Sequence to fold (758 residues):
Amino acid sequence: MPDDPYSVCIVETQYFTFAESPNEMPLESGEKLGPITLAYETYGTLNNQKNNAILILHALSGDAHVAGRYSAEDPKPGWWDFMVGAGRPFDTDKYFIICSNVIGGCKGSTGPASINPKTKKPYNLSFPVITIGDMVRAQTHLIDHLGIDRLMCVVGGSMGGMQTLEWAVEYPDRVAAAIPMATTCRLGVQGIAFDEVARQAIYADANWKKGDYLNHGVVPAQGLAVARMLAHITYLSEAAMHQKFGRQLREKEHYGYDFSTEFEVESYLHHQGESFIRRFDANTYLYITKAINYFDLYRDYGTLEKAFRNVNSKFMVVSFASDWLYTTAQNKEIVKALKINRKPVTFCEIPSQAGHDAFLLPNPDMEKMIADFLAHVYD
Amino acid sequence: MPDDPYSVCIVETQYFTFAESPNEMPLESGEKLGPITLAYETYGTLNNQKNNAILILHALSGDAHVAGRYSAEDPKPGWWDFMVGAGRPFDTDKYFIICSNVIGGCKGSTGPASINPKTKKPYNLSFPVITIGDMVRAQTHLIDHLGIDRLMCVVGGSMGGMQTLEWAVEYPDRVAAAIPMATTCRLGVQGIAFDEVARQAIYADANWKKGDYLNHGVVPAQGLAVARMLAHITYLSEAAMHQKFGRQLREKEHYGYDFSTEFEVESYLHHQGESFIRRFDANTYLYITKAINYFDLYRDYGTLEKAFRNVNSKFMVVSFASDWLYTTAQNKEIVKALKINRKPVTFCEIPSQAGHDAFLLPNPDMEKMIADFLAHVYD
Fold:
């Protein structure tokens, strides 16, 4: 890192708290939530006209730490570090970059593992079910707090793309440009099915204790690991898995005829599960997948054409060829609805083998397209 | 049923026991297993020349009960009932039909839940890991017992297709014709990954007790249900799920903003999980998926061309267009290797939307093709 002249370098997560009693924020469910804390990070400088702000929105397991490191010794940079910095697509020499964590999460923002000020105990399942709309409404308070009327761009992949769409549709005057990536206006039934099996894996863990595990001093680690391993398969393409692991055995040439780890792909999945349980909360997994499953612009507006009727943003929609969870066809539905409404939109399917996770990986095509689009919007 | 003039009517499962001490059957692992009981059913009559016998082989969760009912009141016929009977593709007026259960299973044949005669307790995880090769070797003893030298045809889908290939490759002189359906010479890495997550879901159930649950009077039902729900998604196509359920809510019009069953597809998956745990054993799930993961004719022979060099059967290979677990491409690898060896083979991809499960569902194309192929072989 010390040798990386383009990095945003040492960063710090910030926190903004609002919706204090009696001004709790209303939710789509009809419940209210407050106080609400949002974790966020910023890089670069907001210009005097306040028209160079870009809001980056993260996916299911992401957080506000999109770039940089917390210290010189921090071994791992933020989750989209290669995208953010001097001369990078989200150019911190030109733009003011904000990344906001979501409510319902476990990365510093108010979520089911937070302490309910009324009971002084974790919310657990008493936390209200939140939606993508609620996540974005909370973010509008943060953007107000930062003194920004209109964001130059809102961008995100997967669930971050859902938030991007929600921003553009619900707050048309606050979004000059939008880049939804690897996303959809409504998750397909197979996606809902995978998410439900993941939730069932968490419920099945004896340590879940009907969501009350934090009060019992345990965590449903095995159930959460199963959920993550399952999800991880859906984030990769068969071709990518084949290329990366194939049927290769791990550290042996012959079958062991037992139930220990044998195939490389098994070892990889175990590692994914184990690293996830160290950094994620099981109830949060339930809430966030529920929000993803609920997101449905068709349901909200009747048709997608109506949903996009009042948007006031330039769009660039990006899909990835091998993504079978948020397919190119789903991304094209967005493009089509925008075109019917004669809204400015460019579309690109990036020819990657990496599956849904492709948007998180360095890709010259993606980087150049985003850089060019932002330069165009900025001008 | 009483009104079905084509049915095989009332049937009975039979049992054949062999490999009694000291003649235990050697396994690919180097272990030995015995005594071994195989559950099987037969319909129709073996002719005097003993050349009209067809062996049907079942998939992961199948059993020997391929057709007919156990009593006049039995509400559900065997798993391929529409395929077996008078005038049906597996015509009991012409052919002698045998369906053999597999070792390692929990449907009447020797498996991990069987009593180990040496300890008088269930084998549990002391049961040896078995392979598709071991399953088929056990079946050769049954076919010997039935007095049949050469089977007119061996047929099966999915894991049944793997057994079909194993029969044709390892016992070329005992198989006149083979119909591998919706199968592969080696499962792809994505399939191994899904199976491993399913196994992890079973391990994660506190009632699994390292495989020793039968001695504790419990069953890892929730873990097994998760495994089944996950697998079930892979047996259907996205298009079929979309058509069947879409994003339809169950018995409500509006989101409930809680974690109860909401989408129709969730309800369907729960039902699949619940019905499975009543009829299947969790350790068996581990053993059978392991056998499926191990099956690899490339590994056994170096190349697929070599694997099929000595086969002596007419082949009909059948795939289903929307099957993404055992793809048409995988089925075509079999066809290609047979053609290189100048073996007689016909191939058909059936245009079904039903995914991997298509081979279990009535389909006029499939029925006619199999009937015609068998008539051709019989002549």
